[in-house]
Design brief:
- The longest helix has 51 residues.
- It contains three helices and three strands, in the order H-H-E-H-E-E.
């Protein structure tokens, strides 16, 4: 009475192969999502670092608001001592150099903008972060090269962070 039908003997080799192909496609999709996630995490890290450095420089600009920051050239180090105190211009040169050196350590250098960071007039930039709403406002610009981006991607090229500062 316990007769089995000829169709209920178990899985065939074809069914096992089809299920393995479906599993492999799913695992490839997960691997692709992991790669995209890692690339996007790196973009977010650079954006966060650009924000932190720009806000730090904003504090330096506001603390030293008597200097014409558009004419400041970045220095290479701290040129002030206890014997020779800093003038406002010396402090601006040191601050700008400190900002540039930190940015060069963190960000990949862009082929179109090797300076990575710069101070510009907000009215000349006229971007989302720097509209030039005040005549004396400055724009702190940070540009870095995006890495690990496919050539067909919509986010190909450099990323730029703008911060408007009113000294």
């Amino acid at each position: 009475m316990n007769r089995r039908s000829s169709y209920s003997r178990g899985f065939t080799l074809i069914e096992v192969l089809i299920s393995m192909v479906i599993l492999a496609i799913g695992l490839l999709g997960l691997a692709a999502m992991q790669v995209i996630s890692l690339r996007d995490n790196q973009d977010v890290y650079y954006y966060q670092q650009a924000t932190l450095l720009a806000y730090e420089m904003q504090d330096r600009v506001r603390a030293n608001n008597t200097v014409n920051w558009l004419s400041v050239i970045a220095g290479t180090g701290d040129s002030c001592t206890q014997v020779i105190p800093c003038t406002a211009t010396d402090m601006a040169v040191n601050d700008y150099g400190y900002w540039k050196n930190n940015a060069k350590k963190i960000f990949p250098i862009s082929s179109t903008n090797p300076d990575v960071v710069s101070i510009k007039s907000s009215s000349s930039v006229n971007k989302a972060g720097c509209k030039g709403t005040y005549p004396s406002s400055l724009c702190l610009v940070t540009t870095w090269a995006r890495t690990n981006v496919k050539k067909t991607s919509a986010v190909l090229g450099d990323a730029t962070f703008y911060l408007e500062v009113t000294p």
